[in-house]
Amino acid sequence: MWKQPYFVIGFSIIAFFLAGSFVYEWIWGNVPRQIYYIMEGGRAVEGAPISPNWQFPLGSDEFGYDLVGKLMLGAKYTILAALAVGALRMLIAVPLGYILGTYLDKHRKWISSLADSMHYIPLTLFAAFVLTPVLWMPQEGFTNTIWERIGIQVVIMALLTVPIVAILIANEAALLRDKEFILAAKTLGAGRLRIIRKHLYPQMREKIAVLYGQQVMETFIVFAHLGLLKLFLGGTKVSYDPMFGDPPMSISYEWAGLFGSTFRYLQSAPWLPLAPVLFIGLTIFAVSMMMEGYLRSKNPKVKKLRKAKVEEPAVEWNREQLRNNMVRIKEQEMIKAEK
């Protein structure tokens, strides 16, 4: 897997964001650098939000905070939360899917029909309805920590689509149960648990890995949708001042929150909402690259094609050698016939 350039490139992008986030906070703290205006010739030529320049490659926000610093500080919250949602979702859905596809196969059809109806429910709206009491700051302030709110959000978002993922696993397990090697194992006395461990899981390992990557990418998209609804990862800071209240803000600088809180600047300062979208898109691209590299490393057809390409010069050389030998034998036979 580590020999696949696709996997290495995707892993390097995600590792860069995560490592850079922790290193940035360790060196410069958890508050980005701030500048209110740019001076040239003794006078202010530009005020916040400052457009991208050499000093601020991605510009600054409306309060003068460096956008690169905010994105690097929020990288660890965004990426780790998305990975945790996908992992917890698969950790719950895979065993349930195997149980439903083997032990409860008689009830699989009607449960599958019930779970399929969830495809028509917008996941973002359902998540917003459930997460609003958790993430929207009340007037008296939050009573729990940011990590507790992130943990609650991860659990809720993981549970929302567990039925759909479990049905996918159950249907795939039901298809494999009719294969000859599964029937042979049953004939030899293998129990259902052994069939799951020794036959179903090894056959579905690559599909489960791909499904995990898809869940992570879906989580990034739902985060972005929730950001547009002002529900930010870790909580939404709300000002209840009736006269000079600030708009809802992200507490953790996570990317979806930066996107949602600056979407109103799409026309006047487009770098504010587009920079978080660029980082989210780049991370989704990295996850997709890792999935492709993993599949290439586990696909035997790719290995056979590579071996065929490596052995091709040797085959051509053997053919040429055989042709030369045949010509030499014919020449020797002609010489003998003349004698």
Automatic annotation (TrEMBL):
It comes from the Bacteria. Signal peptide: none annotated. It is a multi-pass membrane protein. The chain crosses the membrane at residues 7-27, 77-100, 120-138, 150-170, 208-233, 271-295. Gene3D superfamilies: MetI-like. It is found in: Cell membrane; Membrane. Keywords: Membrane, Transmembrane, Transmembrane helix, Transport. SUPFAM superfamilies: MetI-like. Residues 79-291 form the ABC transmembrane type-1 domain. Belongs to the binding-protein-dependent transport system permease family. This is ABC transporter permease. It comes from Planomicrobium okeanokoites (Planococcus okeanokoites).
